[in-house]
Amino acid sequence: MKPTPVARHARSGPPLAPLRHLRQLTAAVRRLQAGAGPAPALALVLGSGFAGVRDAVTVEWSAPFARLPGFVAPEVPGHAGAVLVGRLAGVRVCVLAGRAHYYEGHDLATVTYPVRVLARWGVRLLVLTNAAGGIHPRLRPGDFLALRDHINFMGAHPLRGPAPPGLERFVDLSAVYDAALRAHLHAAARETGVRLRAGVYLAVSGPSYETPAEIRAFARLGADAVGMSTVPEAIVARQCGLRVAGLSCITNRAAGLSDRPITHAEVLTVAGQIRERATRLLGAFVRRVGGA
Ligand code: HPA
Fold it and tell me: d(Cα 126, Cα 237) in Å, to the nearest integer?
């Protein structure tokens, strides 16, 4: 049958986002398999505030993002982004040091692509970390927050377009963040004397910080913290069947909640200060979860 003009247009248009990377995905997985062997059960994505955890990993194999098909280097100066495989607290893990952000101009298919690679490789548990602004009055700079749920306020969705073969398009998000993994985070926090609360993370696209009116609105929507990452990766991880934990470090009170303006420098300073506690917390967490 002759294709209709609409169908012709659809076939000759740009490749649809989640499918665009499929060929690169296979190549990236092969590269990981050849270099590092079988996938560790557990992977961690280190966002702002957690970059120092990288130094606690006894590296067995690593590759800069630039060497892995389809990965894009994050913009953060001095951190080109790398995949490490090695031991954290004695447990074999994969660490993604750095991530690409939506606010850098990448689409969400690109931002979430490393998660698809990890899942295809065989990773089963994913810990997503980030820096966030505290909205809940009890959240102070330096606190940690285990994500209980999220609100996607990015104005974009990582599953838009056709689902990759074999995966569900209409993914259930009623329990994105795994309760058992969260319990392990709380136990690890108690063990290491680190203050950890649980709450709802709201993701915005950035790159500006929010207005005080936006933060008041987000508080009424039920958000405890606000940030510019994690949610797209968590959604894709759930589509791929991974169990997910989310962990924020609160680097500042959100807009309008303190008498100081929010600066990226302040966020980075606090992120640097939590480095040691972040490493202890994640080390204890990984030890508890083991290779499970
Ligand atoms: N808003 C959004 N993202 C952030 C913030 C914030 O206040 N702090 C760190 N990341």
Answer: 8
**59 DSSP β-pair partners:** 86
CB-based contact 68:21 (threshold 8 Å): no
> Measured between alpha carbons, how far is 88 from 129 in angstroms, rounded to an integer?
16
**Residue 196: CB within 6 Å of ligand 1?**
no
Whether 252 is catalytic is yes
Q: How far is the CA of 53 from the centre of ligand 1 (A)?
A: 20
Residue 289: pLDDT over 50:
yes
Cα gap 279→54, rounded to integer Å: 9
**Prediction pTM value:** 0.92
Catalytic residue flag (residue 228): yes
The catalytic position among 213, 264, 276, 292 is: 264
- Please state, in angstroms and rounded to a whole number, the distance separating the CA atoms of residues 249 and 196: 9
Of 262, 234, 273, 244, residue with least CA distance to 134: 262
- Residue of 209, 214, 257 to mutate, ligand 1, most atoms within 8 A of C-beta: 209
As a whole number of angstroms, the longest Cα–Cα distance in the chain is: 68
Q: 123, 124, 151: which is closest to 135 by C-alpha?
A: 151
Position 4 pLDDT exceeds 50: no
* Half-sphere exposure of residue 183: CA atoms within 13 angstroms, side-chain side: 3
Establish whether 12 is a catalytic residue: no
CA angle 262, 267, 270 (to 5 degrees): 125
Quote the percentage of the chain above a pLDDT of 70.
91
47 lines ligand 1 (CB under 6 A): no
**Token pair belonging to 237:** 């991880």
CA–CA gap between residue 188 and residue 44 (Å, rounded): 16
Tens of pLDDT, residue by residue over 147-190, are 999 999 999 999 999 998 899 999 999 999 999 999 999 999 99
